[in-house]
Structure formats: structure tokens, C-alpha cells
Design goal:
Layout lengths: L2 H57 L2 H12 L4 E8 L4 E6 L17 E6 L2 E11 L15 E12 L1 H51 L14 H40 L9 H18 L3 E9 L1 H8 L1 H17 L6 E6 L2 E7 L3 H16 L2 E4 L2 E4 L1 E9 L6 H17 L5 E3 L4
Helix pairs in contact: 1-2, 1-3, 3-4, 6-7
Length: 427
């Protein structure tokens, strides 16, 4: 469950329980007070009618009986009134829907009052008692007088008003509880938004950062000083991580580029190496098979290099190779390539070049190498170049075949006196 919802529940549940318990207690107390008030009123009325009905029951005067019932009906909430004689026979009844004497009425003796709930009413029944007068001549027989039951009086109280009041109290309590709960919910939601919202935004930003989005930031908008400090701190941290990541990535890219360059270039001369040469010649063969573009391969082997290397040392030989690499690059067209494929051997691929132009370029390379003077320790040394040329055309378009043909032509150039260009001729 999200933090905001948990905060709402934690903040709301105590208020909900408190409001419900307090409302239930208030409702219970109000209902009990209303019930007590109704019972007390009914008991008071029936207790008043009991002594007042003593004369009526003894005399049997119907006029007095009707007057007594009329006065009883004038009381608030009295719906009906009835009088019964000692045998339970009805003497008089008045009011709305007066019910018969309850079956438990015989219990209403002395000061006892029977209360019965019946069809939305409360029936109060009390015995009407009469005291026999004392006879001084016979004190032992009637010592202290004797209570005689003359009949019963019954009133029915309408509980509609009481029930309406209970409903009103229930609605009032419910409205109050809802109001309290609404206020609690509002406060809980506000606090949840104030705390849970920024925390959720931070959690989402952390997830996005973990997923690789280093440019994620959060809005510094919390009303809490602590949360604002946390939001600002996260943005600073995210910016620092992003900057370090960019720096690290730049270094990785640079190192990768250097490794890629070193993997395809000769570390001494800086020329593409044998691996790059093989890739380029494969590409040239594929282009020829697809589009018919002819490429020319030159194998170049230096002459008189070993004596300089042995006499002046390997450092001088390395310097000579570097300088000759620059000479070769300077004599080629922009789209051509020169490679150092090992030792004092170089390879050149000429693109989009006819046979005559290829011969002219190869001869220029041979002449440039021969005329180059290498100075070491005050001495000038010269070297030469034997070049074998093979055209990638006709049946001679396989990579291995072209390489073998150029190598064979280079061998022929050395065998025939060096310092020259020989093109491979198919037998």
C-alpha cells in the first residue's frame, strides 16, 4: 500500500473509532433519557388518575367518569384512557384506538404500575385501591384499615413524538460524526499529500534513476522544511551522479575509441594495420561483386632496409618507417588507403582507378621512396621499394587470390632487380 494511503488510514482510524464510540454513547444516553422521561410521565399520569378515580369507581357516576377521562386526554401524548372495575369489566374508554386491558394488569396492585409496549404505544396500568375506614368499636378486626382493589385505570401514551425525537437525535449525531470524520479525512489527506506526495515523488525518481534516467529531478515544493531539504539534496545528488556518469562515459568512449584505433592501426607508424587491411580488402571485393567497382592492390616491400636497421639500430629503423609512412600517405589520393602489414611491408588499395592511373601512382610511390634520404648521425641513407600490383577484376576477384597475386608480383619485382613496379599477369 502506498505511503499516502497508509498515512490516511493511520490518521483516520483513531478519529473514526473515537467519533463512533462518542456518538454511540451520546445516542445511547439520549435514548435512555427519552425513555426514562416517557416512563416517568406515564407513571405520573396514571399515579394521579388512580386516587382521582377512587370516588368514580365507588360511586359509578358516568358523568364524573367521562370528565376524568377528558382531563386525562388533555395531557400531552395521552392517546387513550380506560377504566375497569374490580372484575376487569370495562367501565369507560376514550381516546384514539384504546387497547384492551393487558393480560398482566392483575399485577398492578398497591403502588405497582404495569408498563406494556403495544403497537407503537406504552400502556400504563395501575390498580385503583380504596382504604376501608377504621371502626373504633372493632379495632382488632380492622386494625390499621385494609386496602381494597376497586378496579384499574389504563392510559396509552403515544410514542410517536419520542421516536421522532430519537430519530432527530440519531440524525444529529450521525451528522456530527460525519462532520468530524470529514474534518479528519480532510486533515489526513492534506497531511498525506504534504508528506506522502513528496516521498512518493522521491521514490519514483529513485526508481527512474535506478533504471538509467540520470536526468530525473524532483520539484522542490514541499511545505515541510525537512522534505524541501531532502528534495534539494536529491537534485544535487542526481546532478552530481549525472555529471560523474557523463565524465566516466566520456572516458570510456575515449578509451574505447583508443582501443578500437589501436586494434586497427599500427602503433609505430599510425597507419592502419593488417587487420584493417583484411577488412578493407574484403569490403573492396564485396563492392566489386555487387557493383563492379574495380580496386587495385599494391604490395610494397622496402629494399635495403635491413642494413640500416642492423647498422643504425632498431630505433633508427623505426624512425625510418615512420617517416616513410608519411611519404606514402602524401603520394596517395584522398580516397586511397595505405597499410603497414608487417615489418617493412606495406599495402595500398586504390579505388576507382584504371590500369594506367594505377601504374602511374605505383611508380610515383616507388620513386618517392627511392628519392627519400634518411639522415642518421650525420649520414644519409636511401632505400628503395619493390611493388607488386594486382587488379581485382574478371576472375581475379577473390580476396585470397588478389592478395596472392600482388605478393607474387612483388616477389617478381624484387627478383628482377628491385626498385620497380610489376603487375601480376594471369597465365
Amino acid at each position: 500500500m502506498p505511503l499516502g494511503r497508509r498515512m490516511v488510514l493511520v490518521l483516520l482510524l483513531p478519529g473514526l473509532v473515537f467519533a463512533l464510540v462518542l456518538g454511540a454513547l451520546f445516542l445511547h444516553q439520549s435514548n435512555r433519557d427519552l425513555d426514562r422521561s416517557t416512563l416517568a410521565r406515564g407513571q405520573a399520569i396514571v399515579s394521579f388518575l388512580g386516587p382521582a378515580a377512587e370516588y368514580v369507581l365507588v360511586s359509578g357516576n358516568p358523568v364524573a367518569l367521562e370528565g376524568l377521562m377528558a382531563r386525562a386526554l388533555e395531557q400531552a401524548d395521552v392517546a387513550a384512557v380506560a377504566f375497569y372495575d374490580a372484575g376487569g369489566a370495562l367501565l369507560g374508554r376514550a381516546g384514539r384506538g384504546a387497547a384492551d386491558l393487558p393480560a398482566t394488569a392483575w399485577k398492578a396492585e398497591g403502588d405497582g404500575i404495569v408498563v406494556v409496549a403495544h403497537e407503537g404505544r406504552l400502556q400504563f396500568v395501575s390498580a385503583v385501591l380504596g382504604l376501608a375506614p377504621e371502626v373504633e368499636d372493632y379495632p382488632s378486626a380492622v386494625d390499621g384499615g385494609r386496602a381494597e382493589r376497586l378496579g384499574w385505570v389504563q392510559i396509552d401514551l403515544d410514542t410517536t413524538a419520542r421516536d421522532a425525537e430519537k430519530n432527530r437525535v440519531l440524525l444529529s449525531v450521525s451528522a456530527l460524526v460525519l462532520l468530524v470524520l470529514s474534518a479528519a479525512v480532510g486533515m489526513a489527506l492534506r497531511l498525506a499529500r504534504a508528506v506522502g506526495g513528496p516521498v512518493a515523488a522521491l521514490a519514483q525518481a529513485v526508481d527512474r534513476m535506478a533504471g538509467g534516467d540520470l536526468e530525473v529531478r524532483v520539484r522542490v515544493q514541499s511545505s515541510s522544511e525537512e522534505l524541501r531539504a531532502l528534495e534539494s539534496g536529491f537534485n544535487v545528488m542526481a546532478g552530481s551522479i549525472a555529471e560523474h556518469q557523463r565524465t566516466l562515459q566520456a572516458r570510456i568512449d575515449e578509451a574505447t575509441a583508443q582501443l578500437a584505433h589501436q586494434a586497427r592501426h599500427d602503433p609505430l607508424t599510425g597507419l592502419p594495420n593488417r587487420r584493417a587491411f583484411e577488412e578493407s580488402i574484403e569490403h573492396a571485393a564485396s563492392t566489386y561483386r555487387r557493383a563492379g567497382d574495380v580496386a587495385t592492390l599494391l604490395y610494397l616491400d622496402l629494399d635495403r632496409f635491413k642494413p640500416i636497421n642492423d647498422t643504425c639500430g632498431h630505433a633508427a629503423g623505426d624512425r625510418l618507417l615512420c617517416e616513410l609512412a608519411g611519404v606514402l600517405r602524401g603520394r596517395l589520393r584522398a580516397g586511397d588507403q595505405v597499410f603497414r602489414i608487417g615489418g617493412d611491408e606495406f599495402a595500398v588499395i586504390l579505388y576507382g582507378c584504371d590500369r594506367e592511373s594505377a601504374h602511374r601512382i605505383a611508380s610515383a610511390l616507388c620513386e618517392a621512396v627511392s628519392s627519400f634520404g634518411f639522415v642518421h648521425s650525420g649520414r644519409t641513407f636511401t632505400v628503395g621499394a619493390s611493388i607488386g600490383m594486382a587488379r581485382m577484376e574478371g576472375e581475379n576477384h577473390d580476396v585470397s587470390a588478389v592478395m596472392q597475386a600482388a605478393d607474387q608480383a612483388c616477389y617478381e619485382a624484387k627478383r628482377e632487380g628491385r626498385g620497380r613496379v610489376i603487375e601480376y599477369q594471369q597465365p
